[in-house]
Structures are given as structure tokens and as C-alpha cells.
Design brief:
By secondary structure, the protein is mostly beta strands. It has 5 helices and 28 strands. The chain folds into 3 domains: 247 residues, Jelly Rolls (Sandwich), CATH 2.60.120; 159 residues, no CATH class; 31 residues. A 7-stranded antiparallel beta sheet has the order 1-2-17-6-11-12-13, with no helix packed on it. Strands 18, 20, 21, 22, 24, 25 and 28 form a 7-stranded mixed beta sheet that branches. Strand 7 and strand 8 form a beta hairpin.
């Protein structure tokens, strides 16, 4: 353990200073693919060989990226890497809560005996000035396991089996103080270890300041508040692993929002719903391919010719209905060289379909629209509403096969209400009849009592 502490004290990542460059939002969905890692620092950030940032290579699959340090033939095997490959962060504040996950290949065979690397989640203030970092080292110390340590804390966990593990950070405010939860998880989601720390001077290096202070004229001054601190970079440094560190991204899902004939459009949440439904795929080959490959979703539509018998079958679902425009909607999943169709989702997505030319509505009638869906031999009635311009129908569905537009023309009102003048005449007539009735009853009463 003393050996680990000594190494941590020597090779913790150096201070980073950001210039005023465009910043992307950092979120839990950050995609750590080869093209997203930066290896060239701005000239103003370089210090000697600190811009010598190693290499980023594509791995065996589209989701695997290999990060390597620069080897040196001299007395020092690795050089540079004071600043390693990095991904730009964003200006989401800790007060808003920030979550980040990074999947890394770990184990005694992936990180050989004596080799190590570091990953740092770097905190900047809203001006882009360096504040602090949460630095994590992984090192194989005995050839049997890889020790993971959060610098400045007692957090240590051993990884004894080769596999893909997840580093998880969550930054948030707790009773006014900035805190971070860090965890190491196995591929099946099991947490090996998780701890929550207050972000204070325990995380700081030689030139790093506390999170609730800022530098003015080279000196720390008044607190600025943790809600003004952002995560700006996540980066590797001191990568001293011969074969490099393998980082894995989540497979991407691309959704074509418009169908090929441009008659049907899906809403913006379709991508998330479809992505969340991929876990229900039963084909074991497709499921395996999704673990390491990007996926493409295409929504396809086609007009369907219906027989008179089919038309009558659909019209019998809603009394007095007229059906028109039979069409099919399919969700095609492409992954690697395989294709399959998704026929059911875990939630509905909203679709907008253009209306065909229809007969005009007769005076005194109103038209109500429906979508009829035939799935697995069963026809169901779905509610549909008109778009603002009246050109399309909007409906929601979680099953995909054959659809039909149906409508019913109904009488606008069952009884026409009398006009205002008619109401007055009716009131006067009723009053006269009532008064006449009272007069007759009064005369009869006087005659009986005479």
C-alpha cells in the first residue's frame, strides 16, 4: 500500500488552464469515441513537452478507443502525457447536478504488472479558470490485480478480473457544500465500491485552489460558491500502459425522422423510446452485436392496397365509419451486417400522417377521425387529432404493422336551439296561458262559494 501512495504522490495529473474556447455540454451521455478525443492542446496551454499527448486509435469495434502514451527510447520509457487526450466539457454547474460515466477495460492482463494510468474530471469556474479535479489512478502493483484510488481520499478498490468496468462520477450540492460520489461498477451494473466526498482541499495538488475560492492577483480571495463551478474536461494523463488503455463508448442510435415517402413523421422523443426498447430484442445475435456496434434505425412506410373484404372488416370496427388510406409503418434496425424489424416498443411514440383528399363535410355535420391499427391479427381503434393546419393526423402508437385512416361524419347537434326571438315569444305565450288558467280557476271558486 505504501508503494501505491508514493506513486500517487508523484504522478498526479498536473494543473490545466483553459483558454476561452468553445465548450460543449458534458453529460452522462458523452460519447467517448475516437473522433471525440482531443490530442492537440492550444499553444497557450503548452508547457515544454506537455502538449505531447500520445495517441488515440480506433479499437476492434466502433465503440472501442485505445489511448496510448508516447514511448521514449531514452532512460524514460514514457514522456509527454503531462496532459493527455481529453474530451471538452460544458458549463453545466454542480448546483444542477452533473453525472458522468466512463467505461474502461481493466484487469491484471489489460493493465500489466507495474503499469498505470490516470483519469481526471477537471473542475473550472465560469471563466474557465482551473479550480480542482477528481483524479483517479489505476495501477497493477503485484501482477494479480489493479488497484483504483481516488487521489486525496482513502477510496481504494481492487479489480481482480479482466473486463469492462465503469467509472461513475456524480457532482452535486449538499447543504451548501459541493460533493462528489465516485463509484466503480462491473459490466452487469454491480457496484464494487461507491463513496461520497465533500470537494475540499483533500483533492488539491500543489497549485490547485479550494472549490469555494477564487484567485485574484495571484492570491486566493473571497468564496464564489460551488454553484459557479463547472466540469470542463475529462482527460487521461500519465498513461503508462504498453498496449494502451481501452475506453468504450455507448453504441449510438441514429433515427431517420422522416419516412421515405414523407407522408409520416415521428416526434423528437422517438430515438430515446426506440433505444430504450432495444433491450427487449430476443435475437441473441443482434443483442450481442448491439454491445459493440453502432445502430441505425429507419422508419419505413408504404401504401397498402386493400380488398373490399378488408375495407368492410375495418369499417365494421366503428359504426358508420369510412376508411381510407391503408398504410404500413415499420421500424428497421440495422447493426453491423444484420437487419431486423422492431414490431413493439416499450412506450408510445407520436406519429403525424398526412391526410388524403377527402369529401367535403356536409352542412350541419362534424367529422371525427380515428386511426385503426391491425397488429398480430387484432384491430384496435386509436384516437387521433388534427394538426393545427388541418392537413395531418397526430396519433401515438407502440406497435407497428398496418394502419388505416378512418372517419365518421356526425350531426353537429341533435336538436337546433330556438333563436332569441323565439324564446321571447314562447315565454310570453306561456305566461298568457298561465294567467288565463288562473282567471278561470278564480271565477269557478267564487261561483262555488256564492
Amino acid at each position: 500500500m505504501k508503494k501505491i501512495e508514493k506513486i500517487f504522490g508523484v504522478v498526479i495529473c498536473g494543473v490545466l488552464m483553459l483558454s476561452s474556447m468553445p465548450i460543449k455540454t458534458l453529460a452522462s451521455t458523452t460519447n467517448y469515441k475516437k473522433e471525440n478525443w482531443k490530442t492537440t492542446m492550444p499553444t497557450s496551454e503548452c508547457d515544454g513537452d506537455s502538449c505531447n499527448a500520445g495517441s488515440v486509435e480506433k479499437g476492434e469495434s466502433t465503440t472501442e478507443t485505445i489511448i496510448k502514451g508516447n514511448e521514449n527510447s531514452g532512460s524514460t520509457k514514457w514522456q509527454g502525457m503531462k496532459i493527455g487526450p481529453y474530451v471538452e466539457g460544458g458549463d453545466t454547474t454542480i448546483a444542477d447536478s452533473i453525472e458522468e460515466e466512463l467505461q474502461i477495460g481493466l484487469g491484471p492482463n489489460k493493465i500489466p504488472n507495474g503499469e498505470f494510468f490516470e483519469v481526471s474530471l477537471s473542475l473550472k469556474d465560469t471563466e474557465g479558470k482551473y479550480v480542482n479535479e477528481i483524479n483517479v489512478m489505476a495501477q497493477n502493483v503485484d501482477g494479480k490485480n489493479v488497484k483504483i484510488n481516488v487521489h486525496g481520499t482513502d477510496f481504494v478498490v481492487d479489480v481482480t478480473e479482466d473486463g469492462i468496468y465503469t467509472y461513475y462520477w456524480k457532482l452535486f450540492k449538499d447543504n451548501g457544500s459541493s460533493s462528489v460520489t465516485f463509484a466503480v461498477k462491473k459490466a452487469d451494473g454491480t457496484t464494487l465500491k461507491a463513496e461520497t466526498f465533500k470537494i475540499d482541499d483533500k483533492f488539491t495538488g500543489p497549485d490547485v485552489r479550494g472549490i469555494d475560492s477564487k484567485i485574484e492577483n495571484g492570491k486566493e480571495s473571497q468564496p464564489v460558491g460551488a454553484d459557479k463551478v463547472s466540469v470542463r474536461w475529462i482527460w487521461f494523463c500519465n498513461v503508462q500502459v504498453t498496449d494502451g488503455v481501452k475506453v468504450y463508448s455507448t453504441p449510438e442510435l441514429s433515427v431517420v425522422p422522416e419516412l421515405k415517402d414523407e407522408n409520416v413523421v415521428v416526434d423528437s422523443n422517438a430515438s430515446d423510446v426506440i433505444k430504450g426498447s432495444l433491450g427487449n430484442i430476443k435475437d441473441p445475435e443482434i443483442k450481442k452485436l448491439l454491445e459493440n456496434n453502432d445502430a441505425i434505425i429507419e422508419l419505413e412506410t408504404s401504401k397498402v392496397t386493400a380488398t373490399n373484404e378488408e375495407i368492410k372488416k375495418f369499417e365494421s370496427v366503428i359504426e358508420g365509419s369510412t376508411v381510407t388510406d391503408f398504410f404500413d409503418v415499420s421500424i428497421l434496425l440495422k447493426v453491423a451486417d444484420k437487419e431486423t424489424y422492431l414490431t413493439e416498443l416499450t412506450d408510445v411514440i407520436t406519429l403525424t400522417v398526412k391526410l388524403p383528399e377527402l369529401p367535403e363535410i356536409a352542412d350541419g355535420y362534424k367529422r371525427k377521425f380515428y386511426i385503426l391499427r391491425e397488429h398480430d391479427g387484432k384491430i384496435e381503434k386509436l384516437d387521433a387529432s388534427l394538426s393545427e393546419d388541418g392537413s395531418s393526423l397526430i396519433f401515438a402508437s407502440d406497435k407497428f404493422s398496418k394502419y388505416v385512416i378512418a372517419y365518421v361524419d356526425e350531426v353537429a347537434t341533435s336538436i337546433n336551439p330556438p333563436k332569441t326571438g323565439d324564446n321571447i315569444v314562447m315565454f310570453i305565450g306561456t305566461t298568457i296561458v298561465s294567467l288565463l288558467g288562473l282567471g278561470i280557476a278564480y271565477k269557478k271558486l267564487r261561483k262555488e262559494n256564492a
